[in-house]
Amino acid sequence: MKTAESTKTYTELADAAREFYRRGWVFGTSGNFSMLASREPIRITITASGLDKGRLDDTSFLEIDADSNILAGSGKPSAETQIHQTIYRRLPNVGSVLHTHSVWGTLLSEDRGAIEIEGYEMLKGLAGVTTHEHTERVPVIENTQDYTALSKDIETLLADTSIHGFYLRRHGLYTWGETVAEARRHVEIFEFLFEVLGRSSGRPDSP
Amino acid sequence: MKTAESTKTYTELADAAREFYRRGWVFGTSGNFSMLASREPIRITITASGLDKGRLDDTSFLEIDADSNILAGSGKPSAETQIHQTIYRRLPNVGSVLHTHSVWGTLLSEDRGAIEIEGYEMLKGLAGVTTHEHTERVPVIENTQDYTALSKDIETLLADTSIHGFYLRRHGLYTWGETVAEARRHVEIFEFLFEVLGRSSGRPDSP
Amino acid sequence: MKTAESTKTYTELADAAREFYRRGWVFGTSGNFSMLASREPIRITITASGLDKGRLDDTSFLEIDADSNILAGSGKPSAETQIHQTIYRRLPNVGSVLHTHSVWGTLLSEDRGAIEIEGYEMLKGLAGVTTHEHTERVPVIENTQDYTALSKDIETLLADTSIHGFYLRRHGLYTWGETVAEARRHVEIFEFLFEVLGRSSGRPDSP
Amino acid sequence: MKTAESTKTYTELADAAREFYRRGWVFGTSGNFSMLASREPIRITITASGLDKGRLDDTSFLEIDADSNILAGSGKPSAETQIHQTIYRRLPNVGSVLHTHSVWGTLLSEDRGAIEIEGYEMLKGLAGVTTHEHTERVPVIENTQDYTALSKDIETLLADTSIHGFYLRRHGLYTWGETVAEARRHVEIFEFLFEVLGRSSGRPDSP
After folding, report:
1. pTM above 0.80, yes or no
2. Do the chains contact at D202 and C203, CB–CB below 8 Å?
3. In Å, how far is D27's CA from the nearest CA of chain B?
4. How far from C119 is each of C185, D49, D143, D171, D185, CA to CA, in Å?
5. By CA distance, what is B205's nearest residue in D?
6. Cys-Cys with C172: which of A65, A163, C101, D150 at CB 3.0–4.6 Å?
7. How far apart are the first and last CA of chain D?
């Protein structure tokens, strides 16, 4: 399993995880990170369940097939692996899926059906967005421990291919990209904009 | 005292302390950290009093018995050692106790009898919690410099084995776990949720 | 291109970028950084477009002439290169231009024609300011994707030589200095004061 | 000048400065740091003027006498050196003086005659304070560029030997200790408590 290519993958995912941990976006064992190792057939490199996300190394990842059978690595896949599978299956260009838990995202997800972000230059960091005159809609889905039902809802949701991520209420962000670097950029862009939105709506003159 | 095993302990406790210091949760000489070296008879590895918690090394720890007599190491145990003793004595599965001081925790402890946290996925980072549909109650105890009286109150409090920590008002958090890693995870989970709760209650539309 | 002198330049710009990334001021691929390599004729060392600003090295920079033709390096200049050109052309003493995106700056730029900062000692960190009894005016310009038009507006704006920077609304800060160190100091001073101002205006007793 | 002892001093001061910079308490060239090299006669090791405080090394310090004549090192003493001199002269047990600029301190100093802090365990981090049932008063002095006049005001202020620091309005904190470690601890304690106080007073239910 430790070919030069897979090691590179681990390094990129582990670097992203370490940085997210430093920023307080994957405290405890929260969050999980994956990358597509092959599309035909689907093979996914994904963090094993229950690990501290700030201290991942090349023993922290599993390689699984489309049914989440373990092909390499030790440990077991997280219950949320189904969500990663759904995203890879539904979106043919996605090469990496990242899931984080942040304070500002959690706060924004409390009572909205979607987090809408409009008019910021930073939106141009999302793939395909070329102007700040853009409205990004991050759907908020009810959180549940029934990941099978949840995956079906997400499958439906992904019919809207304009979105770059979704939020599980009071839980966390799922975002993705063609590469780990693009997915990581999307996490950063969303977290920046969540903080801007969160601090705006806390001000006395906010609507 | 420097067997391979005890060195491992020091390293884990010192790593946690360094990370907590970086995040601003153990400024100055605040906080203290311990781990059970043996249960029969009780032997505890604990930070010596008065040290800067961001710069601990293997000379920063004492080994003490159930009466806080020093078995190894130099320096003296902190006055709060009694609280650690009480927790180890009362909770037979606890292997590590961590005590931190954070801004958000301090703020939340100002005027509540307990900090109640409900409905967040992050709660699943607490040992034994398997769903976000959980209410975690962190009792808030009046702060005092009489640690003997305080230890008795804590002894009573610990009859409720559903809790994962308690807060000394305007002082700091005590939490624990079977291992240092679990206790550290509990600190991170509580701090995340304290910030979420603190930022929520500061908002104009909060109840 | 890798003379000892140009390497020094890269290092200073890359160090500044890394530090700004750590602070959350250049998330994703946002921000860009430049330094004057020569004034007669104008030659500018500038970050290539689309790079992650937290991980720049000496392959991340281009050398361009006054018409933005590439003289050395690979990649293409960012669309915002025109703004850098305008600043160097218009202000004969400027040796470095830095552009960042921060949460507090973004918030302050929402609905003001200018960000006015007055009475703080920290203002003395701006070149030529010798007392806290100073009012610094940071003009806020409407954001646009038409960088040619924008550059003309900026050219007009720079007739006021008392300013040390300007803000593109909901986008980011442009500031400059005789050296990279001075420009970097200006970023830090502005970010500090933006946070002070942002936190002040969010308080119930603010005007 | 580079004896083993003086190198130790530089290292401690430079470490403190680097950590304060990381936390955003000495942005730009703000702040200055000193330590008593000898009391009879007075010799002070102090940061030279105009340096970036996050990147100090052993060339960044001057040794001066009681009249601020330079005995060793290059560069010139900061204008605020007089304040350090006053503190060392007036308080015979002080071995180190640290001056920082933080967002929360700046905000609290806006409109108070003194910052009063009461009832927090963290107060015990201040030398001589043994209980949380303590009121610490941090006098706020008007900021001025006339450091000679200011030093006289500070001389008067220091007649109250119960204080551990004072604040120049909209400028920054001065605190001290018998050693660099104690002075550094005081900075951390004050900054923690300033943030607690600042976040409390911003809340809708604050008095």
Report:
1. yes
2. yes
3. 18
4. 19, 22, 9, 9, 29
5. D204
6. C101
7. 54
